[in-house]
Amino acid sequence: MPRRKINNWRPVKGQPLTELDKKILYIQNKGHLVPRRELIKTPEQIEGIRRSGVVNTGVLDLIEKEIHEGMSTAEIDKLVYDYTISHGAIPAPLNYEGFPKSVCTSINEVVCHGIPSEKEILRDGDIINVDVSTILDGYYSDASRMFMIGNVSPEKRRLVEVTKECLEIGMEAAKPFGFVGDIGHAIQKHAEKNGYSVVRDLCGHGVGLEFHEEPEVTHFGRKGTGMLLVPGMVFTIEPMINMGRYDVYIDADDGWTVLTDDGLPSAQWEHTFVMTESGLETLTY
Ligand code: MF3
Ligand code: CO
Question: Which one of 181, 195, 200, 277 counts the least CB within 10 Å of its CB?
Fold first, then answer.
């Protein structure tokens, strides 16, 4: 069934159409989903998100330096909280829809949204995703990295590496006036070629003025589908790649932790990007 037309792009009232208006309206008329004008950030807003990203990267660099076997994920949470606050910023996850901590820590078969705990200790051979999101002067940034603790099996190591490649390949696939589906298509192809699966139930997202904005950035899909990518859009790509099947479930006890159904490991890498005239630029390096 054809999708009902959504007229997201509105020319500014009383102003003549710009070349950009004409280009986007033409694509919209062909039946594509295009962004609302509010999703195109101003240069000032992009600079604000970039400054937020500098603090966010500082947090991840600190974790990279400090993370070690025997440490609890609550200790990671404290490092994140203290660094962020001392840099005049706020950890975005804290109290977000009731999330109780400042960072998500997701070990082995935990896909994402793991809650730091004193009882959870990093063990030799673990792989862990640390997902850091920062609010500075009202601007949001979001990025995550994988860390390998001690001697990690070649199988898990390869999962971590291929997942990083998935993020890089997704980034390369995103072109101005291309589509969100181009990103998912490229990621899915690379993951499945390596015998892995792409998590369906969680996706990347617009970010910047709020934690989660449009569009939804799925990490699977078809080229030429999904929302049009216009310079000035800011969003994350954050593939969650499973060693086994893509099915996941949420821990009923805490309502947050997402786990693989088959108990096999999962990995994730994430950056916040801005679309430019020539492709994506990373705001969380
Ligand atoms: N950083 C996660 C994301 O990419 C958000 C998790 S924060 C939580 O959207 F509070 F929702 F857990
Ligand atoms: Co995110």
Answer: 277
Beta carbons of 209 and 138 less than 8 angstroms apart? yes
- Counted domains in the chain: 1
pLDDT tens digits, one per residue of 193-217:
999 999 999 999 999 999 999 999 9
Model's pTM, two decimal places?
0.97
Report if residue 25 sits inside a domain: no
Tens-digit pLDDT profile for residues 113-123: 999 999 999 99
**201 Cα–ligand 2 center, Å:** 13
Calculate mean pLDDT across residues 27-56: 98
129 belongs to a structural domain: yes
- Residue-range definition of the domain harbouring residue 141: 36-284
The CATH number for 199's domain is: 3.90.230.10
Residue 15 domain-assigned (yes or no):
no
Q: What is the pLDDT of residues 99-148, one digit of tens each?
A: 999 999 999 999 999 999 999 999 999 999 999 999 999 999 999 999 99
With a 6 A CB cut-off, is 120 part of the ligand 1 pocket?
no
- Asked whether 179 lines ligand 1 (CB < 6 A), one says no
**Minimum-distance ligand to the CA of 104?**
1
Q: Cα dihedral sign for 242, 245, 250, 253?
A: negative
Is 91 a member of any domain?
Answer: yes
